[in-house]
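Working notes for the structural subgroup meeting. M.R. asked for a predicted model of this chain before we commit to crystallization trials. I am recording the input and output together here so anyone reviewing the notebook later can reproduce the run.

Input as submitted:
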Amino acid sequence: MRAVKIFSGLLFLAAAFSLAAGGQSTRTRATEVLFEGARLIIGNSSAPLENSAFVVERDTITRVGKKGDIRAPEGAVRVDLSGKTVMPALINLHGHVGYQKGLSYSATNYTRENIIDHLNRYAYYGVGAVMSTGTDPGDLPYQLRDEPHPGALFRTAGRGLAAPNAGPGAQALRDAPYGVTTEEEARKAVRELAAKKPDFVKVWVDDRNGTVKKLSPLLYKAIIDESHKHNLRVMAHVYYLADAHDLVQSGVDGFLHLVRDEEIDDPLIALMKERNVFVTPNISVSERATHAEKPAWLDDPLLAETISPNVIRRLSDTFLNRDPRALERARDSYAKQQRSLSKLNAAGVTIALGDDSGIQDTFYGFTELGEMELMVRAGMTPAQVIAASTSVPARLLRLNHMGTLEAGKSADFIVLDANPLDNIANARKIAKVFLRGMEVNRSALHAAWKNSE
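Returned structure, recorded in token form:
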């Protein structure tokens, strides 16, 4: 199986370092590695540590400090990162895995091999963990969550809940959620989910521009109540401002989109802040709809490293001949979302990275980098966006070993050729990715994808 072969191509942290002197690989397995000289972005509100040094033992960071203050343990490998910036691996709170395979987007693609391929694509771009939100059928997602596997760490909401045939927009995803029509059906579905211990419960509260029936307040209130009885948190796909108000009043724990029909108002912002309701902005999907011609990022060589020309060409064609009225509506909605995100950030509402990557032609890992840039354009600082993409989603997913680069945390980090605090677009300048103390063999992954086209 290709995924297994790719996994065997991942380099053990202390076995090979092309960043070491002369680019030579060590021949013996050391248990400790000292990285020196990089600017170290911790991932929280702390200032970056210049000329840093940190020690990794197997999969864990054991010491962090300044170069010269941290001594290399006996027998350790030393890696010179002078001129580089190191930041925590990204964590995406809103993705979908398993459905796309080349030009095909289908439920038949939802297999172990394809999901692992997607998790490897996330890892390639520095995503250390992702949660798939509501479109994961059967037992496979829970098995992958709980078993060792290559690529990004996996978390899941299992099957979400919606009105019948009124959940995800894509037809391929429509059968994944529970379709509920009565309070008893809704509570029963939550109890079935609770037995599998999902990381969140997902609900869709959206009528898809009047084309489907929206999940009623009676039902989502029952879902929230039953979920909380089982110590499960509820995240909602939302569209309308009025629904967002009622969902917060009903006890929802987070939103997986910004409100899109109106600019979010001050009373809702205050209530979200008071009740610790988080939001994943998901503005990259909305921003796509504002283009009347192919956006520049489709020609980014970084995208071409993981995505076939045929898929890029198909997506490029979708930007042609767009309805001017639809474009005007999309641009108006997107501007409202930008203002809303700025207001939420200024008020101190919890914001976490989430971008819907994995819906058709929305690319694993690459889309996260674009989402971060759009968050800065909406008024967040690069430092705020980095925290929203690392330590904040780690906390929300209860990944206590991830999200920051501190002693005792997992060695999940990205080595960059430039500083994203100066320009968030520098997060694209990836030199190396390390997950769980192992260097991701990006060259082998790239070659495997290239050969499969």
